[in-house]
Amino acid sequence: MGTLRREKSNQSSSIVRSQIAAAVAIGISLGCVCAIFFPSGFFSFTRASSDIVPYNSNVKAGSLRCESTEKVNQLKSDNIRLSSANSELKRQVRELNEKLRLAEKGKDSTVIQYPLSSAQTKAGPFGTVKGLRTNPTVVPDESTNPRLASILAEVAVRRELIVALANSNVKPMLEVWFTSIKRVGISNYLVVALDDDIVDFCKSNNVPVYKRDPDEAIDAIGKTGGNHDVSALKFRILREFLQLGYGVLLSDIDIVYLQNPFDHLYRDCDVESMSDGHSNATAYGYNDVFDEPAMGWARYAHTMRIWVYNSGFFYIRPTIPSIELLDRIADRLAREKAWDQAVFNEELFFPSHPGYIGLHASRRTMDMYLFMNSKVLFKTVRKDGNLKKLKPVIVHVNYHPDKLPRMNAVVAFYVNGIQNAFDPFPDGSE
Questions:
Q1: pLDDT for 12-50, tens place per residue?
Q2: Could you tell me the pLDDT band of residue 85, with boundaries at 50, 70 and 90?
């Protein structure tokens, strides 16, 4: 009986173990089937398409890596560009703050005008870089003098004209002056009359004339002043012409015109002037060595010299530096007992130094044989067979006090062909 129970118990345990083994086998089999037919499982989760990279596509993976690199490079490039723009803006702010500081520092009554400059550029190759020397012209302001603006609109050619000041003391020379201008065919010229007699004289000879509105300070000198006194007035009077936007060829009346000067101007500088020099060195500048033996080894000191510009004949463009030049000269002549030509040159050439701010005006020296002073003519040209064949644009009798007869001799030689017209005159004055 006992043996029968043990046999039944063993049979039950064997059946249970068989069932468990079968269940495990079935589970493993189902798992394999599911792994084959449902590799991603029974449930899928939505993911951004840009995050899904198929493992079996090396080409697509490489493409995405390239795109990612390009985006990084683009971001770096944008960062550099924006950083550069930010630095430029900071620089401009610093410059504006500095200009504001300078404007407020002791200059409450002065308006400082800065001409607009072009954008910053890189320097070109060696030998190709040229600095700016032609300043922009001012915006014409007809409210300065409407009556003069109306006259200039009729007289000027391409907004340029010759201007001369005259009073009754120089009437004979004035006639030689405007007669030579008419002979050449120049129409854009104007006489600024300093008295009523000159107004009538010009009108009777069909010469364009302008008389300023009454001004006690100017009229007193204009009516009775000598040559140098009248010459000093021009710097105040010329300012209005420049404010109106006109280029002016300022002319003394002891000048004979033989060609049209406007055909021989460069117009690349603020001031273009004839020289009082009588040679290439004196007219255009030279290195003058000063010898001081007491200094021993350093006895020789090099200096730069140039003979002065003639304030009786120069072309001046309507620019801010040009107007500043006129203001400086007029101010000094009102306060100092000085020669206008000396002041004209000092303001043009003296550099900035401690206690003084120099004028930043560009300048050009005219050809001394085309725009000829009377020293060049009577000391050199008339004695040289080749130079006598040259025809100057103008001859300025500035070196000699006997102006009228020498002006007539210039006309006789260059216009009428009288070869011995200069013979009666000495090189200098007696």
A1: 455 545 666 565 566 666 565 555 555 555 444 444 334
A2: confident
Minimal CA–CA distance to 183: which of 415, 401, 428? 415
Amino acid at position 132, single letter? L
Separation of alpha carbons 356 and 339, rounded Å: 20
Residue 315: count other Cβ atoms within 10 Å of its Cβ: 26
- The closest alpha carbon to 164, from 204, 207, 224, 220, belongs to 207
Q: Quick one: 14 exposed, middle or buried, by C-beta within 10 A (0-12, 13-18, 19+)? A: exposed
List the strands of the sheet with 189-193, edge to edge.
209-211, 189-193, 160-166, 247-251, 309-316, 271-275, 363-365
**Amino acid at site 380:** T
The pair of three-digit structure tokens given for residue 306, joined into one six-digit string: 């140039």
Alpha-carbon distance values, 125 to 118, 119, 128 (Å): 19, 19, 6
* Eight-state DSSP code of residue 119: P
Q: Is the pLDDT of residue 224 over 90?
A: no
- Mapped onto helix, strand or coil, the DSSP state of residue 136 is coil
Distance CA 410, CA 178 (A): 14
Give the pairing of strands 247-251 and 309-316. antiparallel
DSSP assigned state of 146: H
Helices 196-204, 171-184: inter-axial angle, 10-degree rounding: 30
- Distance CA(424)–CA(430), nearest Å, equals 12
Rounded-to-integer distance, Cα 340 and Cα 338, Å: 6
Q: What is the DSSP letter of 416?
A: S
Report helix, strand and coil shares of the chain as percent, to nearest 5. Answer: 50, 15, 35
Residues 6 or more apart whose Cβ sits within 8 Å of residue 233: 165, 194, 218, 221, 222, 225
d(CA 411, CA 341): 27
